[in-house]
Amino acid sequence: MASSAIGPGFLTQTALFTAQLGASFGFVILLSIVLDLVAQLNIWRVICIADKPAQDIANQLVPGLGYALSVLVFLGGMAFNIGNIAGAGLGLNVLLGVGVGQGAIMSAIIAIGIFIYKEAGKAMDTFAKTLGCLKILLALYVAYISSPPLTEAAARSVNPTQFSFAAVLTIVGGTVGGYITFAGAHRLLDAGLTGRQNLPQINKGALSAIGLASVMRILLFLAALGVVSAGNVLDPANPAASIFKLSAGQIGYKLFGLIMWSAGISSVVGSAFTSVSFIKSFSPVILKYNRHIIIAFIIIACAIFLVVGKPVKLLVAAGAVNGLILPLALGTMLVAAYASKIVANYRQPLWLTVLGVIVTLTMAWMSYGAIIQIIKS
């Protein structure tokens, strides 16, 4: 889940909003971390207690709801995957000097290879963990050498001078929106870590995944803040690359290429797996050809990117789109937590439910505002 969250959109959104909000973006990050934790704990616990994927829970709750949720998550996952492919292509463009389109095709082939491999599940987990550690270490290095104003960052994180609802919606959507929060929960189902006896591990997994993603977000924010505070202007065509190039020169630029590619390729894998997991229980045919459908999902995402282009806009838009899905997904799981036909005699802690309702209403309100803004524009 953490590796899926720390994708190219994650890097691009963090750079873009730091440039817009400065040190006050720290407040948005802290707020989003709270929202992320509440959403993920609620969703993971219900899915693992019910021992069913989210779409089956939704269908059992209200016939047809699971299909609606699946379509939204699947389309949102496709939006993310187009951006992920784009980000991987950008990474190889920086790292190897190949065209962005060529880099996207090469990355798609590597991602497909992971699923062709018979031990795909183990390979996917190892791959995600290795690249996740690499991304955090490289971000730590760049955050250190960019010398950010830590005092100002700390002050504005609790007392901001600027705020953006769009930033919160996009950041939360890019961390636990759409398919991302389900990436970990559905992997736990596959691993058999379900039931009340496994709640400690489920809680630990949910918290550590958000923790890892948050550490990466904070490091990138500090790196970007150091660059912006020094009077530099980030390149709007590739704001995340600017952070690394301006703070560490050509070496930093190549490091960015490595981070961007690893973020892209690991998110392509996570997005494809989780998006298809939402439709595989609907038909024995889909279940039988699950791997083939995942491969087709990656190929289609790559083809759409090659036709559409505009990688940076795609990366930011994907987070916002998936933020719109979260209120429905979380709201469904909150109701399911009190349906005995789904969770038997289990009851979600009241404090977690109350916080979950607050997050659902908050994200629904922000989503409504974002839709109105889009219509007016």
From TrEMBL:
It is found in: Membrane. Keywords: Membrane, Transmembrane, Transmembrane helix. It comes from Mucilaginibacter ginkgonis. Pfam families: Nramp. This is Divalent metal cation transporter. The keyword Transmembrane helix applies. InterPro entries: NRAMP_fam. GO terms for cellular component: membrane. It is a multi-pass membrane protein. GO terms for molecular function: metal ion transmembrane transporter activity.
